[in-house]
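Contributing: when you submit paired examples, paste them exactly as shown. First protein:
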Amino acid sequence: MHINIKRLVLITIVLSSPLYATDKAREQRWVDQTIEQIFDGEPVFLEVADHRVYSIYTEPDSPSKNGLIVLHGTGFHPDYEQVVRPLRVALASSDWHTLSIQLPLLSSEARYNDYISVYPEVPPRLDAATQYLQNKGVNNISIVAHSQGATMAAYYVARHEHSITSLVLIGMSAQHRDMNINSAESLKKISIPVLDIYGSKDFPAVLQTVDIRSNAAAHNEHYQQRVIDGAYHFFEIREDELIDAVSNWLTPWRK
């Protein structure tokens, strides 16, 4: 169903943490370019400090206490057509509340490691997303995240107070040079259930750090790695397999 922009929901969740260096103009461009194209779910804005964070909420088909925060990769948006949209829509059909949120952005010229500067912005956004779902009566919240979004999710869960019960980390590397952000270092501090899933034809940085990530999570009895044969980083032509793998893994952690 087409969403009228006048019917946007403003969710006021005021948090004290300051913002750092996100490109607000670029975030707004994603809103302008995508908001009228949302056909599954409704756009909402989470107010974090002095910034309105673009998000898309999709209600499940049946009453549920289970929710997913969905995170995109570097430079993308909450309705990105590969990985993000398919997961947020399909999992809502499996009775999960899904909330896909805009992560901090830098300019289009920024490189992967340049994003180190905006990691402090991630926890306030995830806190706001958690509170939004809790206000919907959701008390079992997981994160499903792709690429650098997965690294951001691991960083958040490892180093901040949170209410997250499980993590699905898709196409995650361990390449950040800053050990406060590096995902292998984060995995050493995480004890909640984790699915570390990637494609057999994924980016080199993902494939080259498979063992590093697994060794870092050796203490976690609920950590699992899964490879989807033939899949690239964005799971072209392997989308259904990704959805099935994520949905099946999440099932035991439902309430």
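Second protein:
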Amino acid sequence: MEIQYLHDYCLVLKGKKEQVVIDPEEKNGFEGRVVVSTKNMWNFVKKSPDQVVIAGPGEYEVGGVELTGISAGQGSTVYAITIDGVSVGVMGEPIEDLTEKKIERIDSLDVLFVPCAKKSLEKLKLYLSWAKKWGVNYVIPVGYESEDELKTFLDVVDREDLLPVASLKISRDELPEGLEVVVLNRHE
């Protein structure tokens, strides 16, 4: 699987058979058969009749891609998405902290996208504590509006030296030991 970061919270997960686009906007130019919204109040116009739009809590399976959506308050949804055997956590912009029961609904994750826009150090540390509970191998910051917000995140994870990469290719068989932080270039 390959991950690309477009902007804000918009991501593309390219699997062998399916492409999942998360929180797209019309300007993206990326299309996938599976489109996921972390904001349930979102309007997306389907590009084709076979396109599947998922916008809310529940359990879904589309073409071998498994998705579990958990309510994060006021129309926001946190997803665990499994594609090509790799499990990815997408938080978008959680409105409320997840309860222990909701955290436990997500068994484990290989990748977690951590929202960084206007986050306090306490909130970032909370998200990283969830990453540890889920046994995450890769943490990727998203949603930051400025370099200062990204710097704050990198300071919290003690990785100020990281340079952005164009994309991240992940295989279930080649996951790193422990937690790694990856910064992806925006493809706006």
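If you have annotations for the second protein, write them as plain sentences, like these:
The two ends are 21 Å apart (CA to CA).
The chain has three helices and 13 strands.
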